[in-house]
Specification:
Structural class: mainly beta
Distance between the termini: 17 Å
Number of strands: 14
Oligomer: single chain
Number of helices: 2
Order of helices and strands: EEHEEEEEEHEEEEEE
Helix content: under 10%
Strand content: 35-45%
């Protein structure tokens, strides 16, 4: 069967297609002991990161994470940074991306010429923990955007999905059924969120507290994106393939 690299061109939006469930985000978080010997559950560490005074170098207000000056919640840490440790690209799973086009009539004697429209969608920005999922301001994935865009992704991490598709002219031999498959190119960014609570000096009503540090490993996956034509949304990179089966 012929394979064709997806060209960087404007893509028609079509109804036929299948979603690639693997394009989301995989988050693997482990509790890490801090300097004071205290442990935090993964959900607690990510909440502390989301509610940091400074998140990935940007000062936050409590409204950025739904806080309130009276009702709360308020800041839970002083600083949280994502530190990347590894980046790689790989082929995602192949998915059927079109309907079937049969040439199975009993009296058929010649190949059937068909116009095949196919479409596939790859998702990104889906987290294992609630606080890592996308919100109105993007949440932690909004903070990841700077690191993500350094590589081959051209989508903001707050964008939930991107699409690939095309319309191709194909010949279907007698006695065969044709459909299109699509294999997306994916990327994986490995790193860790580093959360810090600054040391506090003693006051007349509180004891001194040492600096506390917590680390949550993170693995983020999403599609490699080609820029869209004429300002159109980015297009998922990958390889399309025509597949023939017997009637």
């Amino acid at each position: 069967m012929s394979k064709r690299r997806l060209k960087n061109k404007k893509i028609r939006i079509v109804a036929v297609g299948s979603a690639l469930a693997t394009g989301g985000v995989i988050v693997a978080l482990l509790p890490t002991a801090n300097a004071a010997g205290e442990e935090k559950a993964p959900e607690q560490i990510m909440t502390m990161c989301q509610r940091a005074r400074v998140l990935n170098g940007k000062a936050q207000s409590i409204s950025d994470f739904g806080g309130h000056p009276i009702a709360g919640p308020s800041f839970a840490s002083d600083n949280c940074d994502f530190v990347e440790t590894k980046f790689e690209t790989f082929d995602g799973p192949t998915e059927k991306a079109s309907i079937d086009f049969p040439n199975c009539e009993p009296n058929a004697t010649e190949p059937a010429k068909v116009s095949v429209t196919w479409s596939a969608t790859a998702a990104q920005g889906q987290g294992k923990y609630t606080v890592t999922q996308q919100g109105g301001g993007g949440g932690l994935f909004g903070a990841l955007t700077g690191s993500w865009l350094k590589h081959k992704g051209t989508l903001d991490m707050t964008v939930r999905s991107a699409t690939a598709g095309d319309t191709e002219q194909r010949d279907v031999p007698v006695g065969k059924v044709l459909h299109m498959e699509f294999t997306p190119k994916m990327q994986r960014m490995t790193g860790e969120w580093r959360v810090r609570i600054d040391a506090r000096e003693a006051t007349t009503v509180t004891n001194a507290t040492p600096e506390q540090n917590f680390v949550a490993p993170d693995v983020v996956e999403g599609p490699v994106i080609l820029p869209g034509a004429a300002g159109a949304p980015g297009v998922v990179d990958g390889t399309s393939k025509a597949v023939l089966t017997d009637c």
